[in-house]
Amino acid sequence: MSIIFDLIVKLFLKIVNNYIIIVVYGRSVDMEKKVKILFKCLFAFILSLFIMMVVDRVEAAEVVQGKVVKTLYGSSSDILGTGSLSFTRKTAVDSSNNTYIAYCIQPTVNFSHDASCTRTDTALATSLRPSISYILSYYDKVDPTKKKHENANLSDKEYFITQMALWYLLRGCPTAGSNVNCSSSEWSGFNNFVFNFDSPSSSTYKGLSKDVAIQIANIVKGAKSVTSVPTASIKLNADNLSFKRDGNYYVSSSISVKAVNIDGGHTVSLESAPSGTIVTDSSGTSRTKFGVNEVFYVKVPTSAVSSVTNIKFSLKTDAVSNRIYDPYGYDCAGGAQDITIIKPRVIPVTDKIDFSLTVNSAKISKVDLTSMKELPGAHLVVKDSDGQVVDEWVSTNEPHSIVGLVKGEYTLTET
Question: What is the pLDDT, as a whole number, of residue 99?
């Protein structure tokens, strides 16, 4: 890439240099020729950029080495226990020596030897990518802790079932109804299977109830129900958020999150909050990590807030997704089958909300309606909307001040 870039730069500079010599250093050239020369310079520059973009795309094409691991036989006791169906189990190794489980795309083409395979966007139909992602990650999602996406952890039977489910989908076989088969003279692999997608447990192979047939039907049925490759997100739910005074804190209403494809919990943090502000669970324990189904609260110390003020600060949450499965297709050289793999990954997700805590004060008087003078000796109580006492006092000859009132409804009573 760098060699091509250097050549392009040298060519462009030579053309520009010729233009300068002709135009600047005294050679007599009319205006029309000057414009043509300048146009050639610009054209050469634009062409060079186009060439660089094309070359960069070609160089960026990912290449993996498709490798044969072993031949799987349906007649093996741990798979079907009968029949003549067989094919190879494969892996793909990238340039960083990462190994992925690989599956063949065309059942009618052999993959009997190692092959160099180049990633291509046309190997997998866009409309089928969600279903392919579902099929290839099926056993990994059953129990994520077992990491079935790693080659050593996926059994031969699970590989066999996954490969057959993929071929069933890619061949456009029926995926609904009962007593369904996909017989073909081109490839007889499905000729002895009868699938029941209404009741997958009734699926058979050669008239016998076989777990392989049942699992293929289950996976294909599930694959047809997905419409997009999984993603992940998290959103803080704090609509109509309010604060109430509770002892030495202003306590927020409950906060929760709406999480998609996140099981490992999330971490909350405060930004620009008053000193001493904490996040707690329902029991009042200060924490920063919560499950996606837990609610939590923000507590602002009353000592950190002046009598009349408006405080603005933020709450942020961060999480990491479950494994996301991206399917990729590869064109293999040497007449070998094209292959597909999934690359599990996790993605960081985040969300943030802004708070506004407004604190007010009030003066309350007990006065004579005629003289408008203060009436001492009255016992007065102010309660919030939950019936909690905010303040109580006995009136004097001076108005009574209440500080630290947050937005809300209050009731004044005389007892």
Answer: 95
Cβ(180)–Cβ(125) under 8 Å?
Answer: no
Burial (CB < 10 A; 0-12, 13-18, 19+), residue 5, is: middle
pLDDT digits (tens, 9 = 90+) for 177-225: 999 988 887 788 999 999 999 999 999 999 999 999 999 999 999 999 9
Half-sphere exposure of 93 toward its Cβ, with a 13 Å CA cutoff?
Answer: 7
Buried b (16+ CB within 10 A) or exposed e, 115-141: bebebeeebbeeebbbbbbbbbbbbbe
d(Cα 101, Cα 103) in Å, to the nearest integer?
7
Side-chain half-sphere exposure of 373, counting CA atoms within 13 A: 4
Q: Is 31 helix (H, G, I), strand (E, B) or coil?
A: helix
Q: Tell me if residue 273 falls in helix, strand or coil.
A: coil
Q: How far apart are the first and last CA of the chain?
A: 88
255 neighbors 238 (Cβ within 8 angstroms): yes
SS3 of residue 377 by DSSP: coil
Cβ 196 vs Cβ 165: under 8 Å = no
Residue 370 CB partners (closer than 8 Å, separation 6+): none
pLDDT tens digits for range 68-92: 999 999 999 999 999 999 999 999 9
Residue 140's alpha-carbon distances to 228, 248, 324, in angstroms, are 18, 49, 11
The CA radius of gyration of the chain, in Å to the nearest whole number, is 36
Cα-to-chain-centroid distance, residue 97: 26
Give the pLDDT score at 50: 56
Closest by CA to 373, choosing from 400, 394, 395, 397, is 397
The DSSP 8-state label assigned to residue 286 in this structure reads B
CA 54 to chain centre: 31
For tokens 């456009």, name the residue: 172
Report yes or no on whether pTM surpasses 0.90. Answer: no
d(CA 216, CA 5) in angstroms, rounded, equals: 52
Phi and psi at 183, nearest 5°, equal: -65, 145
What pLDDT does residue 156 have?
97
C-alpha 19 chain-centroid distance: 53
310/407 Cα distance (integer angstroms):
11
Distance CA 202, CA 200 (A): 5
- Taking the C-alpha atoms of residue 66 and residue 333, their distance in angstroms, rounded to an integer, is 10
Structure tokens at 285: 């324990």
The set of residues, in sequence order, having a beta carbon less than 8 Å from that of 180 and lying 6+ positions away, is: 173, 174, 194, 195, 196, 197
